[in-house]
Every structure is written in structure tokens, then in C-alpha cells.
Design goal:
Shape: elongated
Number of helices: 11
Largest sheet: 15 strands, mixed
Distance between the termini: 151 Å
Strand content: 15-25%
Structural class: alpha+beta
Helix content: 10-25%
Order of helices and strands: HEEHEEEEHEHEEHEEEEEHHHHEEHHEEE
Length: 578
């Protein structure tokens, strides 16, 4: 067995370690004498085992405890020993590190470094020390408050440029409520939603007037092939109220019915829940008869524009896009459109009696008045004057048409440009009109159903330029069957008749006299007022004058003249009864 010779260990009686110079040197087998020891690797910490003679370098370090133990203070820690520093320096001096990364040409060694907790003072260009924690919290609060104030300013600035919503719009009452008027009842529109009533088919008592034939070439009009809207200054249009109609007077004297009205008044009552603007209807109870009238200069003679829209129209009367100006413009367009789409060759369809409101030799618009009677109960009938505007013979059958026109004044208000959408997205145009003019479309549909029209033609008329309210073009003409269109716009005919029947029953319970139904301008409800007998007459004032100073009302003639021409489109289209 091979032995292992550990050599001779010398004893040093003077201290630790081998003797410095002794009689006997450390002898190791096969080891050359007087050769300095060199470590195999620089990471090997060979030199001393322990050193209690050095001063601990971390004695005053804040992290150390006084008199306690610290790993860096150990006598056996030589991490800071520089025994081989000279050797390492000699070896490292022969190495060079080459930086191959692309250096920025804009590197500025004097540029201050921005650390998360440091700030830079832009005024003097010097970095400043981090603030205390409470000062940083206050600074963040001030910055957040400034940002919130900035957002509020931007919000109010943008809101001031956008028109206010419909909820903030304030409308005026269609009639001035006088202090001596007594309120009888008020009916919220919510009570109308579940009403239902069915009436049998009506009968025609009389048809007056004359109709021209519809020109079918207008069905082929498109936005790429428009036609300018013509003006018909020579034709007269009549807007006569119920009690000024000589035919209705005659039928009332013959006791043909107990309730009398016109199609425009009935459609206003039947579509009352859809209305937003204020309106008023005069109710006269005479004996056992009931007459629904409109005032002279009533808003019922005009057409509402953007009534059900969410964006209100300007209130200034001088603006061409104000509520009043657009109503007059819509009535002007509707009248001219109803005469332009006809074949004006002198060929007319005449009926039993001529136009009851026209003088002999006077040129009147193409219109026929159908006096129709409905049975509301066993002892109550309703007679209404209904209008049709044209006629068309197809397959040996005669069809009656109603003609109405929707008008576009500015695509920015409506949200849909008709010139771009009518050909490709006609349904979107109709849906947008139902959203903005739902009440007007419902009233037109109701009038077509009451008149027994076979077809209702809707024209799309637009301004030549958004700022020109005198010149217009016809973009398209679309036809609908009234009852099918009523289903399409969610108009329930049974509910319409239920609303009318409830109002008639309520008015029949009133005493003889004059009343007025007023739609509240701000709430969805209608009020009934008891008014003096001379209310709404030309000589009516709030405080009656002495009898000798009062002007007597004019004597009623056999014929009521309510002629309105369209010479100037900005004039109100009123019905004046003589």
C-alpha cells in the first residue's frame, strides 16, 4: 500500500504560522524550494485564513448595530483584500473592450439625468432635490385640479357650440290663456294609450270640387334627375274651418249628424299623443250638436317641421331655419308640390257640386271635398270634410290620391343627406323622417285614411342651397297605401278612434257654450277651458269695452271665402272665413 508523506511540520515557539527563518525549512516532497505560490484562478481567495489585526471597515456604517455581528465585519472576510490587486492590474492592462454599438451624435455628457424622484427646474436649468412626501402629495393634487379644470373648460366650450337638447327647449302656447278662462279638465296623454274603438265603414254624403289626373312621370324622378319646384301663383287654396263651411251648415240643419269637424282637426286629435308643439281647437256646443273649429290664423294651417326631433330649432323669427319660417316654407312647398305633379291639360274629373268656397271664374287648386259620415254610437254620427288631391284611372278603376311633400332644409339638422341616401338607402331616409317628423307623417296618414284615399304620395323636396329658402327641387316621389303605411309607422287606427271617441264623449257632457282644447306646451297633456262666447272674434279683448264702443262682428255670408295664394312664400298661410 502506497503511503502518503505529509512532511515535517515545524514548530514556531515565537507566534503563529511557520517560523520566518529557521533552522529547518518547510520541506514538501517533490516540491521545489523557494518558489512563490500562485493561485490557479483569480477568484480563489488564497492568502490569509484570518486576520484579527485589521480595523473593521464598516464599524460606523448606519446599517450595522453597535457591538453586534455584521457579515462584512467578519475577520474571515477578504472581499476587500487587495493582496492580488497588483497582479490583477498587470493582467487587466493587456485587455481592451471595444464598443461596437452605434453612438448618438447628440450625446451631451453635461445633460442632467432625470430619475423618477428628481425634477428639472426649467427656469434656471438646474435639477432640484426630491420634495418631501407631503409636498409631493400636495403637488399631485394641484396638478390633478388643474387637469380637471382644463377638462371642464373644454367640455363647456364644446357644449356651447352644440345645440341644446330637446329637453331644455321651451315652447310657447299656441293661444294666450286669459285670466277669465276657467279650466274644466285636463287629460294626460298617458290615458290615451289603451283606448280602442272600432267604427264601421263610412258613407259618402257629398263630393264637391274637381280633380286633375296624376302625372306618373314623377314616379321616375331620382336625385340624379331632379326637377325644380314650380310656383303656382294663380291658384287659390282654401283653409275653411268647420262652422264657416256652407255644406256642413246645410248638413247640420238636416240633422245628418251630431258631431262636425274637418280632417285636419280630426287628425290633430287622433294623433295628439305624438304631438310636441302646442295646438288649440275650439269646441262649440250648440244644442245637441258639437262643432270642432280652428281659430283664424291657427297653427293647424301650417305644417310642423322637426317637431319630434331631439334638436330644437332656432327661436329667432328672422332666421330662415326658425320654427315659424320653416312652417311657412313647408306649407308653401306642400301646396306647390300638390299642383305640380298633375297633368295640367284642362282635363278634370268633376263631381256633384263645384268647389263650395270658390267664386265663379276663379282658378282654384285641384282638390275634392268628400263629406263622409261615421257612426259613433246608435244615436251619434260624425260628419267630416276630407280632402283628396288627384285621381288616376288604372284598369278601369278610379283611384284617389293625397299629395304631400317632405322638405329638407339643411342636412346638418336632419343628419341624413337626401341626395346621397335616397337612391341607395330610402328606408334610412324614411326612418330619419319618422324620428324628426313623426307627428306630421301620422297626421297625413290619418287624413288619407279618413278621406278613403287609395294611395298617398310623398314627395321629397330639398333646397337648391341650404341658405336659399326660395328655390327648391324635387328629388323623389314615393307612393304608399295608407293603411299599410299606418302599420309601418305603428299607427293604430283603433286607438285613433278611441282617442276621438273619448274626447267627443267628454265634450258632449259639457253645457252649451264655447270651449277650447289646448295642448300644454311643456307637458304631454291637453286642457279644456271654458271661454266667453265672443272669444277669438275680431273684437274680443281681455277687458270688454263699453257696448257703444264695441265693433259689431260682420254678418256671415252664405259662402265662406278662405283664399290663400303663394305669391310670397314667407307669408303666413291662413284661412280667412268671411
Amino acid at each position: 500500500m502506497v503511503g502518503f508523506d505529509i512532511g515535517t511540520v515545524q514548530h514556531n515557539p515565537d507566534g503563529w504560522g511557520p517560523p520566518e527563518f529557521g533552522s529547518a525549512a518547510l520541506s514538501v516532497a517533490n516540491h521545489p524550494s523557494n518558489v512563490p505560490f500562485s493561485p490557479f484562478s483569480r477568484s480563489e481567495k488564497l492568502g490569509r485564513i484570518a486576520d484579527w489585526t485589521r480595523n473593521p471597515p464598516n464599524a460606523a456604517r448606519p446599517g450595522s448595530r453597535q457591538g453586534g455581528y455584521h457579515a462584512a465585519d467578519s475577520a474571515f472576510d477578504f472581499s476587500g483584500d487587495d493582496s492580488f490587486a497588483t497582479l490583477a492590474a498587470d493582467e487587466d492592462s493587456s485587455f481592451r473592450l471595444v464598443d461596437t454599438s452605434a453612438k448618438s451624435h447628440h450625446h451631451n455628457p453635461n445633460r442632467p439625468k432625470f430619475y423618477p424622484r428628481w425634477r428639472f427646474n426649467a427656469q434656471n436649468g438646474r435639477s432640484q432635490l426630491p420634495q418631501r412626501r407631503d409636498e409631493e402629495v400636495e403637488a399631485r393634487k394641484r396638478e390633478a385640479e388643474k387637469e380637471r379644470a382644463r377638462r371642464d373648460r373644454l367640455y363647456h366650450l364644446n357644449r356651447s357650440q352644440i345645440p341644446q337638447r330637446r329637453e331644455s327647449a321651451v315652447f310657447k302656447s299656441s293661444v294666450d290663456i286669459q285670466p277669465e278662462w276657467n279650466i274644466i279638465d285636463q287629460i294626460p296623454f298617458s290615458t290615451f294609450s289603451k283606448l280602442s274603438f272600432t267604427v264601421p265603414e263610412p258613407e259618402d254624403l257629398l263630393i264637391c270640387g274637381g280633380l286633375e289626373y296624376y302625372d306618373r312621370s314623377y314616379d321616375r324622378i331620382s336625385p340624379k334627375n331632379v326637377r325644380p319646384l314650380e310656383r303656382f301663383k294663380g291658384r287659390n287654396f282654401f283653409k275653411v274651418t268647420t262652422t264657416d263651411d256652407p255644406v256642413i251648415r246645410r248638413l247640420a240643419n238636416e240633422d245628418k249628424a251630431a258631431v262636425f269637424a274637418t280632417d285636419s282637426i280630426l287628425s290633430t286629435l287622433m294623433c295628439a299623443p305624438r304631438s310636441v308643439y302646442s295646438w288649440d281647437i275650439v269646441v262649440q256646443r250648440v244644442g245637441n250638436k258639437l262643432f270642432f273649429d280652428k281659430r283664424d290664423g291657427s297653427q293647424l294651417d301650417l305644417l310642423s317641421v322637426h317637431e319630434t326631433s331631439q334638436e330644437p330649432l332656432p327661436d329667432t323669427k328672422d332666421d330662415i331655419n326658425s320654427l315659424h319660417s320653416l312652417s311657412v316654407e313647408a306649407a308653401y312647398i306642400n301646396q306647390n308640390f300638390s299642383q305640380q305633379v298633375l297633368i295640367r291639360d284642362g282635363n278634370k274629373v268633376t263631381f256633384e257640386e263645384p268647389n263650395p268656397f270658390a267664386n265663379e271664374g276663379e282658378e282654384v287648386a285641384s282638390v275634392a271635398y268628400r263629406y263622409r259620415r261615421w257612426k259613433l254610437s246608435d244615436d251619434m254620427y260624425l260628419v267630416s270634410r276630407c280632402e283628396v288631391h288627384s285621381v288616376l284611372d288604372t284598369n278601369n278603376q278610379r283611384s284617389f290620391f293625397t299629395l304631400n311633400a317632405l322638405n329638407e332644409f339643411d342636412p346638418k339638422y336632419s343628419g341624413v343627406d337626401w341626395r346621397q341616401k335616397l337612391e341607395t338607402q330610402r328606408g334610412a331616409v324614411l326612418a330619419n323622417e319618422l324620428r324628426n317628423n313623426g307627428n306630421k307623417l301620422a297626421k297625413w296618414t290619418t287624413q288619407a285614411i279618413l278621406a278613403g284615399a287609395d294611395m298617398m304620395k310623398l314627395g321629397h323636396v330639398s333646397r337648391v342651397h341650404p341658405r336659399d329658402h326660395f328655390n327648391h327641387v324635387i328629388l323623389a316621389v314615393v307612393g304608399y297605401k295608407p293603411r299599410d303605411f299606418a302599420v309601418q309607422i305603428n299607427l293604430n287606427t283603433s286607438n285613433m278612434w278611441g282617442i276621438l271617441k273619448s274626447i267627443v264623449d267628454l265634450c258632449m257632457k259639457l253645457k252649451e257654450g264655447k270651449y277650447v282644447l289646448v295642448k300644454d306646451p311643456s307637458k304631454p297633456q291637453v286642457r279644456i277651458y271654458d271661454v266667453p262666447q265672443d272669444a277669438f272674434d275680431n273684437d274680443y279683448v281681455e277687458e270688454p269695452l263699453p257696448e257703444d264702443e264695441q265693433v259689431q262682428p260682420p254678418v256671415e255670408d252664405a259662402k265662406a271665402e278662405a283664399t290663400t295664394t303663394v305669391d310670397v312664400p314667407t307669408e303666413e298661410i291662413n284661412g280667412k272665413a268671411a
